[in-house]
Every structure is written in C-alpha cells, then in structure tokens.
Amino acid sequence: MLNCKCFQRNNLPNYSAYEPDTFSLPDPLPSWPPGQGFACGRIGLSEIEVVKISKFRFIWGYGFSQDRKKGVSFYKPVGVPRGFYCLGHYCQANKHPITGFLLVAREVASTRQEVTNGRNHGDLPALARPADYTLVWTADDQHGEVYEGCGFFWLPVPPEGYKPMGFLVTSNSDRPQLDEVRCVRSDLTDECETYRRILDVYSTFLNFPFGVWSIRPCDRGMKGRGVPVGTFFCSSHWKPGEELNIACLKNLDSRLHAMPNLEQIHAIVHHYGPRVYFHPDEVYLPSSVSWFFEKGAVLCKADNSDRVRIDINGSNLPGGGMNDGAFWIDLPSDEQRDSLIHGNLESAKLYVHVKPAFGGTFSDMAMWVFCPFNGPATLKLGPLSFSLSKIGQHVGDWEHFTLRICNFTGELWGVYFSQHSGGEWVSACDLEYTEGNKPIVYSSRNGHASYPHPCTYIQGSAKLGIGIRNDAIRSDKYISSSARYEVVAAEYLGDDVVVEPCWLQFMRKWGPRLVYDSRAELEKIIKRFPLRMRYSIEGIFAKLPMELSGEDGPTGPKEKNNWVGDERW
C-alpha cells in the first residue's frame, strides 16, 4: 500500500513513455497435450467469450517521486483481438514486474436461454456500451481548476439491466469515448469484493482520502462461478461492507471446458511440480500413507474396543460421515512406534487434488504431504530459543501447498503456502525456481508449514521476536513432486476418471486427542525473565493457536475447508 500525503502536478515527472517489464517464467512453456479447451487462449462463459491480455500501455502514474518503482501505475490493454472489447483498466504497484491481466470480451451465440427473476434476457445483448461516464475522482485545488496530465478516474454508467466491470483512467479531463469499454448484462455477472489496497491518496485539500483496491469474486472455491476481470476498484467514500459499484463475470457454462484433462494434469505436474526441502535437522519426515499403514498404524474406537491394524490401502477404514469422534488413527503401542514417527522419505509422495478456481478460468492443484508425526515446537523470546518438550506435537500431520494455473495459457500464476492456521499466496514472480519452472517449497522444522524462502519465521510477534519458531532451510532432504506424486481427486472430470483412494474417505482424526498442562511449561520459561517483560510475553502467549495446548491429530484432506472452498487468504 502506498500512502501519499499531497498531490501536486510539479511532483509528477513525465512518464508517458514508461513501459513496464512483464514477468516471464524462467523457461518457455511446453506444448501441452491435446484437450478440449485448456491453454487455448480463449474461454467461453456461456454468452460471452473472453481472452486474457497481459500487454499494457501506460496511462498515468502516482507517487513516482525520484523512484518510479515506489509508485503506482495505471494501464490500458494493447493487442485486443478484433471484435473483443475492453471491460476496464488495470493497476498495480511498480515494485514488481507486470503480473496481472485484463479480460476482454465478445458476445457469442449461446445454446442456453437465461431467465432471471421472470425476465427473459435473451432479447438483450450480452455486452452494451455505457450510457455515459461519471467522474469519480481527480485532483483539484477546490477552486474548480484541474490539472492536465493528472489522473482522471471514470466509472461507466451502465444501461438498465447491465453492470460495469471496472473503471477507466485518463491523463486529461476529456471524457472517454463511449465505445472504449463495454458493460455486461447483469445475469452474466457476479458480486466482487475488495482484496488488497494498492493506493491511498491523502491530501491537505481533499475532503476524503482516495483509495484503490484490487478485487476478487465473492463466490470462490471449487463451486464458485465468479471470474475476475483483472480490473480495480476505487473510491473516496466507500466503507468496508458496502456493496461495490462494479462486478466480475460469471461462468454459466457448467461444462468448464477450459479445465485440464487427466493427461494434461500429469503434464502440468511434471512441468511445475515443486521441490520440497526439509530442514537438515528434521527428524519427523514424511512418508506415503500406505507405508504408514503397512508399518503398523491402528484404527481406534471411542467404545474402547480392540485397536485394529489398518489395511495397507485403508480399505477397512470407515468412510464418509463426519468427524464425530467415534474413530481415530493412532500409532502402534509396540516397538514399531518409535520408528514410525520418523517417517520414510523414500516412500513419501505428494497427493494431488485438482479443482476449478475462478469459475474454471484457473486450476488449483492442491498438493498434500503426509507426516506420521508433528514434532514439538521451539519458542523464541528475542535472542533466546527454548525447545519445548510436548507443546505442538501430535500424531499425523497433513500439510499442503497449492499451485494456481492459468487455464488460458497453462502458466503458473502463483503458489499458496499453507502455514498452520493460515497461509499466503505468493505470485509466480516472487518464487524461487529449480530445474526450469519448478518452484521451491521450504518445509519448516518439526511443524512442516510451507514457506517460499529460507528463513526463520515467527508465529506470534515478528516485531518483538516472540513466538513459535518456524525454521525453513535447504538441505539434502527433499521430495521432487514432479516425479513422486499421485492424483487422488479431480471431481470435475467425472466419477470414473480418477479413483479416489479408500483412506481419502476417512473423515475423522488422523491422531488421538490428548490434553496436557502446557501453561505449566510456559510458566517455567516466563519466570526466567524480569518482571517488566513478563506481561508482554504473556500477552503474546495468549495469542498462540489452541493447537499448542495439547495433542490433537488433524482431519484428512477431504475434511478441510479448502477441499471445496478457497484457500484462506
């Protein structure tokens, strides 16, 4: 986010010829196997067809000062195919190369007749010119004077029954031509929401600050049909929770023909499958699920009946239902227990779940890794670190990261790194790569959270240096997921294309629940510090996740919210 305290024309250098760098992956894309619509460049959304544009022409920038990389720039698409129309302009901070896109659209014949609220929309075209434009914001001195060469932000005024998809920006006060943009019929749109703030403009002569945000569909996840256009939202009076005056597209074509087929899925994993590095001191390594079962994992019942050894394929696990506490998985009680908790890196693999994202215009490939045991945490208090004896440990640990693939081209768009109770999306331009276009994932010591770069990450207060340590670094312990993986689910392909393993249907815990007095262990550590520091340290401890207060095995991948829903971001 960029905070600007004043706006004056003479503070803005002339960057009319400024052309941004566009991010490219380290290696060229391969020729993908043939299919229905994946990586074909165009995607049909029922009555409209869209093309992704990633080449832009600079319109106007803000906050350049002496370093253009500290500013924010606004762009219009270039190279729009004949017959397609712009839906809005694009904005991003200059500190990164161009990684975004704009969708341009044209109307196509539809085999469906959409009826909404009793009104037949078949008589209205899918796209229409705006009736006019509303000037949303520009800089003035409250005396009626406007500066040529400044930014002017325009909202298309849609005809009745239509919605605008984005704003237009000009570098002068001339109103844009009505033919420069198209509005979309309301039943072909979906609601969107602000995501990240890109720009804040504060001024001594403006009554309200002006803000610019990136946007995303409200309806996301595997069943979501919202499609982002790549535009931005801006306002000087909008408040969180209020409905936006622009929309995103909606894919009404249930066939999702741009999603990859099974052969293309394998090609994508072979090309992009990350290398997952484990810490050199990691002793709780991953294994395959079948190795875990074969070495003695047992099924326990709440009625205290006999513990049953699990079949190598998990065929004797109760499938379906919900996490009702009736069953759970545990380690054996014999001598196999000690060897089982350390895993088996040679057998380990990534379990891949492929699902639609953003209405089928992107594919999310969630890659799950299983560790038989999650080790105890390490507490960091400023320059000191304390290894905890039990806090944080539990039987069974399911972690994941997710590749987001653009279905227009097959490009890697970003990677989601799951980190305990949260996570983060990292753009493809900010990843580390090996062997061409394969991203690198760093798994933290003992806890197995995923990170994009080697570092010590603090779960707590990074500013104070107080919290749970997550140490991630490269070593000779790693999994190359491009070679060691198994596709376990891709529901959109149909029931018979990918056969889900039996263990995936187990909806209960993959470890027992044990509660212990973690507070007593933390109190011993707190007492080592001066009285004036103890209150702050206790406040940080109170914010640590509840999972640190006892042992509680996780549910399997299919019971997680992100199996059907979007990642937490």
TrEMBL record:
The lineage of its organism: Eukaryota, Viridiplantae, Streptophyta, Embryophyta, Tracheophyta. It comes from the Eukaryota. Residues 549-569 are annotated as: Disordered. Residues 557-569 have a biased composition (Basic and acidic residues). This is Vacuolar protein sorting-associated protein 62.
